Amino acid sequence: MQPAAEPARDFIDLIGLEIDDVSADRVTAHLTVRPELYQPFGILHGGVHCAIVETLASVAASVWFGEDGHVVGVANQTDFLRAVRSGELRAEALPVFRGRTQQLWSVQIWDEDGRLAARGQVRLQNVRSTADLGRPA
What we know:
This protein is an alpha+beta fold. It is 18% helix and 39% strand. It has a six-stranded antiparallel sheet.
């Protein structure tokens, strides 16, 4: 009998997103497209693109904000530009704006032929106190 496979640790592991490079100014990653990530018509689900955009922007924003607190995403706008059925995607997050209370990051996702498959941006709130998370404004 084979030992049970270890369950995925989190959503990033579940979709297979691999973070390649992390800095306060840029985050890169890749993902292998597989049938488990398809929508009903046999192409990569748009939610996967959204998750890549959200993840890379959040990681980058968190690294930049550092020990000053936490960041939380407040808006994710993702455009799907090209259907993807197979291969490996590459993604890169770059800052658009980094301020005292908010950040805006742009993320681009390319297919294995170097064609832009999706792009998005995430606005994040800089939160200095964890106690402030989840409280009404």
